[in-house]
Amino acid sequence: MIQERIARLPNFVRRFGPLEGMRLGLGLTDAGQEVALEPRPHAVPGYAQPIHLRDNRSDYSIFWQTMVRTQYDLSKFPQMAEIERRAQAMIAAGQVPVVVDGGANIGLSLRAFARDYPYARIVAVEPDVDNMRVLEANAAALGQGHVPVLGGLASRSGHCRVVSRERGSAGLQTEYCAADAEDAVRALTVNECVAMVPQGAPWIVKLDIEGAQDELFSANTDWVAKADLIILELDDWAFPWSGSSVNFFRALAEHRFDYMIDQELILAFRHTD
Predict the structure, then answer these.
(1) Which end of the chain is more exposed for a tag (fewer CB within 10 A), N or C?
(2) How far apart, in whole angstroms, are the C-alpha atoms of residue 36 and residue 260?
(3) 3 state DSSP class of 143
(4) 178, 166 Cβ separation under 8 angstroms
(5) Nearest CA to 122 among 181, 202, 47, 59?
C-alpha cells in the first residue's frame, strides 16, 4: 500500500495542490479492517464541509475514484449544458431535480453531486449497514435536503439483502429476500426514490450496483424516458459472460440517447422528445 500511495502521489498533488495533495496522498490509509471502523473527518479542498472516511482500502479506493480522479465531474461533457438547462426548467416549473444515487457506498458521489448541483436533491441508496454509517455522516455534513436510504435499487419494491462481500465493501451484491430475512433491507424502485423528495422530478440516475442492473432494467422501466442522464458503471469485467448490462441497453434502445464512455462509466444523455 505504501508503494501504491507514493505512485499515486503526483495525482493527488495535481488535483489538490502541493501542500494539500501531499497531506491527503500520504495521510489517507487503509490500515484498518474492512468494517466496524469509525469514520474520521478529512478536510478536502473544494469541499466546504469535511469528508468522512474509514481507514480501510475500500474507502481509500472510493476517495481515489471520486475525489482524485473526479469520476463524477460531468462538466467535461458538452451535453451537460442542456442537462443543466432542463434542471433549471424543472425549478421554474416548481419541481425539484432529483439525483438517484444507486450504490452510494460511503457517500462520496453524493458529496460530489451536491457540490456541483446545489439546486438538486440526492437520494442515496446503499444496502450495507456499515457503509451507511459513513454515508449518513457525509450526508449530515450538508444539512437538510438529501436523503440517505438503507436499501437497494430494484425493478419492484420489496426487500433485499447483501449476498456477496467477496470484493469488499465497495463491491457488494444483493438479491431479493423475504421481509423477515436476516439483514433484509428495502428494495426500492427509481420512482419510489424520486417520490421521497417533495415535488421531486427524475433528473440524474447514477448506478454503481454490482451487476444488479440486470434485474433493475428487466421491468418497470418507465422512468428511463424521464431521466435526463443515466450513469452506469459497467460490471461485465467482474461477471464474465453474465450479460449483466443487456437489459440496460435493451431498455435504453427504446429511446434516443447520446452515449459517452469515461473511465469505468457509460453515460446516456436523453434526447428530448
Answers:
(1) C
(2) 37
(3) coil
(4) no
(5) 202
Strands 200-207 and 158-164: unpaired
Please name the residues in contact with 207: beta carbons below 8 A apart, sequence gap of 6 or more: 102, 103, 153, 213, 216, 230, 231, 232, 233
Domain that holds residue 132: 80-270
d(CA 190, CA 1): 38
The string of pLDDT tens digits covering residues 71-100 is 999 999 999 999 999 999 999 999 999 999
If you ran DSSP here, which 8-state letter would residue 68 be given? I
For residue 184, the cross-strand partners are: none
Of the three residues 39, 68, 97, the one that is the final residue of a domain is 68
Whether this model's pTM surpasses 0.70: yes
Distance separating the N- and C-terminal Cα atoms of the chain: 50
Distances in Å between the Cα of 120 and the Cα atoms of 59, 69, 145, 198, 207 are 25, 23, 9, 12, 17
Examine the domain organization and report whether 34 and 143 are in the same domain: no
| Residue 23 burial by Cβ neighbours in a 10 Å radius (0-12, 13-18, 19+) | middle
Question: Phi and psi dihedrals of 19, rounded to 5?
Answer: -70, -55
Indicate whether 165 pLDDT > 60.
Answer: no
13 and 146 housed in the same domain? no
- Assess whether pLDDT exceeds 70 at residue 206: yes
